[in-house]
Amino acid sequence: MPLEPRQLLRAMFDAAVAAAQPALCVPANLPQPSGNLIVIGAGKASAAMAQAVEEHWTGPLKGLVVTRYGYSVPCQRIEIAEAAHPVPDAAGLKAAERIMELARAAGPDDTILCLISGGGSALLPLPLDGISLEDKQAVNRALLASGATITEMNTVRRHLSAIKGGRLAAAAYPARLLTLLISDVPSDNPADIASGPTVGDATTCADALAIIARYGIDLPANVRAVLGRSDAESIKPGDPRLAKAETRIIAAPQMALEAAAEVARGEGLPVHILGDAIEGEARDVGKVMAGIAAQVAGRYQPFAPPCVLLSGGETTVTVRGKGRGGRNVEFLLSLAIALGGRPGVWALAGDTDGVDGLEEIAGAIVTPTTLERARKAGIAPRDALANNDGHGFFGALGDAVVTGPTLTNVNDFRAILIEANEG
Question: According to the CATH classification, is domain 5-15+254-418 in 3.40.50.300?
Answer without folding.
Answer: no
